[in-house]
Design goal:
Elements: E1 2-5, H1 11-19, H2 24-29, H3 35-46, H4 50-67, E2 72-76, E3 86-87, E4 104-105
Parallel strand pairs: 1-2
Antiparallel strand pairs: 3-4
Length: about 110
């Protein structure tokens, strides 16, 4: 199981690093290997045609759904406060949204 952070810059980065055989995150999380998946991701990253990339990634995602190389138990999102009306908010080092518990809009 894996509690995912949501720090991927792009879908290319997520698919390559998170799931390909040589992906850095995959080497830590699941150590999963699937040559067909690797090929689909490489093709999606190589094409300039966004429609074709989407189709390739859909096929790759289906492989992930069918084989379930990792069970994601949750995800974290960075919380950013952008209004001067916000009071009691503080950013947490772990990107938790729990700081919102003490926050109010004045």
């Amino acid at each position: 199981m894996f509690h995912a952070g949501d720090g991927w810059a792009t879908v290319d980065d997520m698919m390559e690093q998170g799931y390909t055989s040589n992906g850095l995150a995959n080497s830590i999380i699941a150590q999963w290997k699937n040559p067909e998946f690797d090929k689909l991701v490489a093709q999606a990253e190589a094409t300039q045609d966004l429609g074709q990339a989407k189709s390739l990634y859909l096929k790759a995602q289906q492989i992930i759904l069918d084989q379930e190389p990792v069970l994601t138990t949750g995800a974290q999102y960075s919380v950013v406060a952008v209004t001067p009306k916000l009071q009691g908010f503080f950013g947490r080092a772990d990107n938790s949204n729990r700081a919102l518990i003490t926050s109010t809009l004045g």
